Amino acid sequence: MKKLLLTLLGAFVAVSSSAVTLSPDHNPILPGFHADPEIVYSNKTGKYYIYSTTDGTPRWGGHYFMVFSSPDLSTWTDEGIMLDLKTDAVSWADGNAWAPAIIERKEADGYKYYFYFSGNNPASGRKEIGVAVADDPLGPFVDLGKPLISDSPVGRGQQIDVDVFQDPVSGKYYIYWGNAYMAGAQLDDSLTALIPETITVMTPEGGTKQDYAYREGPYVFYRDGLYYFMWSVDDTGSPNYHVAYGTAKSPLGPIEVAEQPVILIQRPDEEIYGPAHNSVICLPGTDEWFIVYHRINKDYIDREAGPGYHREVCIDPLSFAPDGKILPVTPSK
C-alpha cells in the first residue's frame, strides 16, 4: 500500500528488510528519459515499483506510462508499458501521460492497485486526472472510463501532478493535486471518487522561486505524528527546480512551511540540475527512508535542447533530525 511504508503501519508489515547500500555512482537508476517518479512497495509481491512519466518527447507529448520493479532499490527491471492513453484502455484521454500515483489496498478478494494519472482530455481541451484499477502492480489496469478530477477549485491551473495517501491515524484515503495551486480531498470508500465537501485548497503561502513558492508536484507522507508535505518550486525545465516542504497536524492542513524549507536543489559543480518532483519510500519495518526524484540530463540543460522533457530518475537517502526536521539531501551522481 502506497504510504503504508511511510506510516506507523510499517511496524505491522510481515516483511523484514536489511539496509540498502547505494553505490557512489548509482544515479540515474532507470535507463533512458523518465520523470515524475512514483515509488511504491507491494506487500503482494515483496518488490518495489517505480511508475514514471515517459520523457524524451517534445513538449511533454508522451502518451504511456512505464513501470520498473526492484527487490532491493538498487537493481531495476523494465516491466514495460502498464497503461497507454492512445489505446482503448483509456477512453477519455489521448496523451500527455503525466505524473502518476499509486496505492495498494488489501480487500476481501485480495490486493487492489489504484493508479491515478493525468492526461489530455480532447473533449474539454484540458489536462484532467483519472484512475485505473488492477489486481497486480503490473496490471492489467482498467480505467474508470471518465475523469476523476476535471475542474480547478481555484478557477486556474492544470489538474495534474496527483498524489494519494492513506492516513494511518484514521485509515481514510486522501488525494492531492494541482499546478499553480495545491488542493486535497478525501476519497470515498471506492477510491474512485472524491467526497466533494472535503475539497480543500492547501497552497502553501508566500515564498519565492529561490526558496518555497509552490509550483506543483505535491507529495504527502506521515512520520512520528507529523504529516509531511513536499512540493516542487520553479519550472521543471529550470536548473533551479527544487523541493521544499512543510508539515501539518492533519491530512488536509493547514501546512506550516518549514524553517529551512529547501531540502533538495541543484549542484552545478557536479552537473546536477533541476532535482525535484519526488516521491518517498521507507523500508518495511524500519526508519530508513529514501527520496526518489528526477533531474535534468546534463547534456540537455540548454533551453533549446528541451531540458523540461529530458529528465532522468534518481534515488538518494532521506534523513531526519531528532526533532523531525528533514535534513537537506545531497543529490548524488
Structure overview:
This protein is an all-beta fold and 333 residues long. The chain has no helices and 19 strands. It has strands spanning 34-41, 48-54, 64-70, 77-84, 98-107, 110-121, 126-134, 142-143, 163-166, 173-177, 183-186, 200-201, 216-223, 226-233, 242-248, 256-264, 273-282, 289-296, 311-318. Strands 1-2-3-4 form a four-stranded antiparallel β-sheet, with no helix packed on it. A four-stranded antiparallel β-sheet has the order 5-6-7-8, with no helix packed on it. A four-stranded antiparallel β-sheet has the order 9-10-11-12, with no helix packed on it. Strand 15 (242-248) and strand 16 form a beta hairpin. The protein is globular, with a radius of gyration of 18 Å. The two termini are 30 Å apart. The relative contact order is 0.16.
**Share of helix among residues?**
under 10%
Instruction: Characterize the quaternary organization of these chains.
Output: single chain
Number of strands: 19
What is the string of SSEs from the N terminus onward?
Answer: EEEEEEEEEEEEEEEEEEE
